[in-house]
Structures are given as structure tokens and as C-alpha cells.
Amino acid sequence: MPKEKNLKLKKKTFQAPKGTFDILPSDQVWREKICKIANEVAKGYGFGKIETPIIEDTELFVRGTGADTDIVEKQMYTFKTKGGDSLSLRPEFTPGVIRAFLENGLSSLPQPVKLYSVGPLFRYERPQAGRYRQFNQINFETIGSQSSATDVQIIQMFFVIFKEIGLKGINLQINSIGCKDCRPAYRKVLTNYYRNKTDRICVDCRRRLKENPLRLLDCKEEKCVILRNSAPHIIDHLCESCHNHFKSVLEFLDELEIPYMLNSYLVRGLDYYTKTVFEFWPEDESVRQAALGGGGRYDYLVKLLGGRDTPAVGGGCGLERIINQLNAQNAKINLPASPRVFLIQLGDLAKKKGLKLFEQLRKENIYITESFSKDSIKTQLRLADKAGAKVALILGQQEVLEKTIIIRDMAIGVQETIKQDNLVKELKKRFSKK
Questions:
Q1: Which architecture does CATH list for 341-432?
Q2: What is the topology classification, in CATH, of domain 25-182+238-328?
Q3: Residues 6 or more apart from 306 whose CB is under 8 A from it?
Q4: C-alpha angle with apex 235: 176 to 160, nearest 5 degrees?
Q5: Any residues with CB less than 8 A from the CB of 371 and at least 6 apart, and which?
Q6: CA 300, CA 311: separation in Å to the nearest integer?
Q7: What is the pLDDT of residues 345-377, one digit of tens each?
Q8: What is the pTM of this model?
Q9: Would you say residue 173 has pLDDT above 80?
């Protein structure tokens, strides 16, 4: 018989997929603070939280976001199910929120309906600073109001969040892209401007010129940006209604003292936007990576997805981009407090009693930690010191039988034995003096 060859199987090492990352316990502090503030601000402004599936019918984004947008053409993760359905990981919140608004009868509620979401989105992009294939966003939608005050309230909420988390130097870029009444005339003017310049724009923009000329203003290719800078401004072609709406938005922003810059070429690149569009940018050019977020008004989307004519406005901000900006500004955050109490147990009987005692103290809001996997008192005392505990509770077999427990002051090493029934009262008494 031929000798069997000894095949060495190469061990596969796994890594997070390209463009994704792990969020470790040490990374959670900023995330939890930002989400907590966002939740408080949302509730304070009367927004109810909505959670939609991370997968939706692909057609929802094709119709809602726009078949010719970069998101749909290049960035969506789309797959076929075993049943033949085409589903996509959500690349943005708005179409899914509007789908839920219609499907669940929220359109019958008193208007406007205010909804907010926090969660992951997915886009196939070339990973770079501030751009990931899985990222998290804070999102606000106000559905059922055409008032310019509603546009500004969404913007205001983000500035409140920025301020409360300590983020500084954020500016607002804002524009109006008109409505179905005035936009066609501007599209014609814009098309005429580019008509004899097609050899000076990128391949994508040549296609956009036929399908959606406004998207030429959103192109990031250097040669397209240079040409765009001389393009006609849409703000000069607004109808009276859009002009008055935008004027009112700017007056509200002035009243709130929110800094902004008019950006005549801002269009946001999504088909559903009308009138107001905006983005949040760091003022400091040296740390600029990308917009922290943005949004705008979308008065035709609800009808496009099967509902009645319903005006709406919304906006979102990337959680990772906010954190990157905070880090760039060397922002400080208060780290979680050290546990005040460390529970030391010695032996199986003490372990059993210790598990019950741990839960009792947690329910009394006493910040406690432990190491049930260790048996040595020396090791556990060292861990208690490393954790920064003020007090160590020592529970052995004798203490369990006698229904007592030893309290050790970690700072000075003095310890005393007390009845277990008096433990909560004694701990609260000690901590009230500190």
C-alpha cells in the first residue's frame, strides 16, 4: 500500500469582514453616551422610537431612494432568498420608516408623526476614514408637516445633541433644490450648461446628464467639481413657494443662532429630496473626513410608496463619524466609576450563597463586582485592589453557617464581621459618608 502523505492543514484565521469592525467593551463608553443623549433629546422633542428590519424588499430602495443613485447602483447589499425574493440590507432608514408608517396605519395618527431610529446601515463602499460597510446612524423623521419650522427643528435637534456630547465647531451647509414645479426649468438650464462639456466630465456624469442632471452637482471627481463650480445655481431658479420656504428656514436658523453656510451645489444625491437639503460638517478643515450627516425635505416619497400626498422631512448622523470627530478634538468623557464593593468567596458553600448575595446587592443599586472563577483569597484581594473597590466582602464557609460576613476596608486593611442581615444598611451608611 502506498504511504499516506502527512498533509498539514493550514489553520484559517478569521477576521472581521473588510469595512466592518468589532465594538469592544472599552469602545462602548462614547457610544452609550451619544445614544443616551439622542434618546433623551428625541423624547424631549416628542419623537417615538421605531425599529425597522435591517432587510427590506429591494424594490423599496429602488423606488424610494432612486434607481440611478449611487446607493442603489453601487452600494446596496442585495441577495435572493430561497423563495426567489430579492432583499437588500438597508443602506438608509427613510424608505423603511415610510414603509412602516404606511403598513402599520401610522398615517391615521394626528399629524405630524415624529419617529426616530438608532441602528446599523450597510453600504458597499471602499473602506476609508469615516466610511465603513457597516455603520450606525441616529435618524429623525417628521411626517405630515410642510412647515419650514419642521425642517429647522430636525436641524436644531442635532445641534442640541452635538452640544450635549461636547462636540464643537460643527457647521451647517444648506441649500434648496426646489420642487416639481420649479425643478424642471432648472434641469433644462443645467443640461444646457453641460451640453458642450461632456468630454470634460467623468463617465458616470455623462450618464447622469441624461438620467438626472442634478446629480452632476454631487459628483466628487476633481474634474467634475471644477466644472460644477461655474454651473448655474438652483437657488436662482426657485418658484415663489420654494423661495419663501427657504427664506423662512434661514430666518429660523438665524433666530436660533445656528451657524450655516449656503452651498448652492448641495443636492444630497437622493431622488426623493425636495426643497431644503442640509449637511453637518466640521469647521476645522484639518480634521475634515466627510459630512457627519445630513438630510432634507421629501414631500413626494410617501405618495411614491403608496400613501397619500404627505409632506415630510428627516435627517441622520453617523455614530462612528461623530466619535471620530470627538477623538480628533481630544474630547474627554467620564469613565464608568470603579465598583465600590468586591465580593470574595471561599469554597463551594460560599459560592452558592455569594451568587444570591451578589444579586441582592445589585438590586439595592450597590455597584459590585466579583471573581467567582477564583478560589484563593490572596488572588481575589489583588483583583479587588486592581478593580479600585473601596470595600471587600469576604464570605467563607464559617460565615455562611453563622450568617455573618467580613467587611474589609481596602484602603487601610481594617476589617470587621457583621450579620448578613445588616449588610445593606452598613454599606449604604459607609458610602453615604464618602
A1: 3-Layer(aba) Sandwich (3.40)
A2: BirA Bifunctional Protein; domain 2 (3.30.930)
A3: 102
A4: 35
A5: 379, 380, 383
A6: 7
A7: 998 898 889 888 889 888 888 888 888 888 889
A8: 0.85
A9: yes
